Amino acid sequence: MLRSLRIKFIVIIMALVGTVLVSVLGGSFISTWQTQAEMTDAALERSIQRDIRDRPLMADSGKMHNQVGPNMLILSVEVDETGVLLQSNDAPVTIDSGVLANVLNNALSSETDRGRDNELHIAWRRAQLPSGAWRVVIADTSSSYYALYSLAIKDLAITAVAMGVLFAISVGLSSWLLKPVERAWEQQRRFVADASHELKTPLAVIIANTQILNKDTTLSAESRRWIESTADESAHMKNLVEELLELARTDESTAGAQGVMQKTDVDFSEVVESAALEFDAIAFERGCEIREDVQPDIHVEGDPEWLARLAKILVDNACKYASAGTPINVSLAKEGKHCVLKVNNHGQTISPENLEHIFDRFYRTDKARSRETKTGGFGLGLAIAKGVADSHGGEISAQSTDANGTTFRVVLTCI
């Protein structure tokens, strides 16, 4: 849980700061691109309004018709309606005749008075003269393109370095912030484990004593009733202690403790089939039928006892809450590098509000149920199942709809 919390913290910090950084640098890049485009358009506008023989002056303010922009090296040409070149300015610029012909053809055939060729990095502007001829001014935008390209590379480099530094800071910050939580979690886990261990001995004594008293034939019916009640409560307490110990062990394994669970090659197909077979009689008593669809020879790495516990919890849970006469579907299939276990039953659907907490400890969807009923329990079974899945590097989830019933889904990595 703490590992997941740390990862979420890092992801949130990276996402928030990364979004701000990308927005700022992206906005700066777009602003620069728009400024470059406006400068090019302003230079073309000034050039097309000047006499074709005029040359821009160095240090000229570039002011004309309230437009401000730098002087650029621009080629101005005048052509007749058929595209025949009439004259050009004497700017010190050379352009390939084929490129010039292509640009003039595009300019004269265009429906607008301005355009760009991004492949050639050329911008043009046209205007019709009183004589009927066309003046076309052409600007080389290569410098703007490479300036923007250089800016983009720098922005990407800044983003990469900043995100790397942010990641390192986030990791350190998450460790520092979660230390109190980790300490409290460890203390709680130890308390649960130690308390459960300490309760086992007196519970064993109480159960043993009640069994001895039950064999005493001299006891009255009233006394025997109290002894049986004590025995029942002791059995419930014993089950609760055992489940708390199981939770403590799954917590230790999830936290990275060594030796809590084995790491062996487990035939998960066999484990699931055995769990389904074990609860077949219980399902039959409820008027249900367990239907298996288990692909053979699916292997995972883990602890066979705990994986069996996971499968049994889900099948047992499906049997408890299935409506009479409905099927209980247990399937196991390979999906790429993973295997997916699904346990489905049809009964009372679980609301979305309850689904959010279905794997929480001591959480029960029906608060009115008591442990004396058929479906009674302590609300720890699914929490244990989640702990087993997490400790094996897997995932567990649940869905519940009126049409498809309730389905628990476990995803583990195959070997």
Structure explained in plain terms:
- This protein has 415 residues and is an alpha+beta fold.
- It has two domains: 2-147; 264-413, Heat Shock Protein 90, CATH 3.30.565.
- The chain has helices at 2-49, 97-109, 142-214, 221-254, 268-278, 280-285, 304-321, 352-355, 381-391; strands spanning 74-79, 85-88, 114-117, 122-128, 134-140, 264-267, 289-294, 299-302, 327-335, 338-345, 395-401, 405-413.
- The strands form three sheets. Strands 2-1-5-4-3 form a five-stranded antiparallel beta sheet, sandwiched between helices.
- Helix 7 (304-321) runs antiparallel to helix 9 (381-391).
- The longest helix has 73 residues, at 142-214.
- The chain is elongated, with a radius of gyration of 39 Å.
- Mean pLDDT is 84; it is low at 61-68 and 368-375.
Task: Summarize this structure briefly.
This protein has 415 residues and is an alpha+beta fold. The protein is 53% helix and 18% strand.
Task: Name the descriptors.
five-stranded mixed sheet, Heat Shock Protein 90, 2 domains, 415 residues, five-stranded antiparallel sheet
